[in-house]
Sequence to fold (208 residues):
Amino acid sequence: MIKLLIIAIFFLISCQAKDSEQKNISDSLNIAKNDNSIFIKDSLDYSVRFLKEMEKSGLKNVSLVDSFLILEDNDTITFPHTPIIGKKTVLTGKKEELAISLTVTRINQITIDYKIEMVEFGNVSYSYEGQADLHPRFYFASEVNESSLSGLSYLSTEYLDEQDSCYTYIRLGMEEKSGPFLLGKIIKNCNGKIQDIGHDNFPTLIEK
Fold:
């Protein structure tokens, strides 16, 4: 009897704590909507650049809560789960004399650390490190790429890094027939003496 009473009390406390947490989030969302602002539960989950771009894009009365973007009409959008937060992944590809290595580590809900290394055998090399973010309106449409392994199309998540006239777009996704590997495409200029990399002039980068 005492054991059952302890279990009942524990269950009641757990439910109250959960209800309290949900109420706090709900109250915060209401505050955000009332003063026409953007509510952020934890700023470490998002980059400053992303938040500034969100403000520029005209989004208002939205809330960022963990892996969710909640719009003013209460539509809830989940941030992409690819790649996994905290996991370092190396993808490589080669076409004729040019080899490219891409190292990515997702550091929060919308940002990846990346390093791109290009080697044109017998000629030149190029290396660049940076951070790339999701676009604030990423949910409008996923990018579609074609796997060089299977020839099939697959949906990918695009992360972008734009600095003045230089740009880097990194698209990451998976395609079942290609195997359990992360696939990548980069679109990038400002590569030193190496040609611009476009959507169609270099094959899929594949997780090692």
About this structure: Residues 1-35 have pLDDT under 50 and may be disordered. The helical segments are 2-34, 48-56. The chain has two domains: 2-78, 88-207. DSSP finds two helices and 13 strands in the chain.
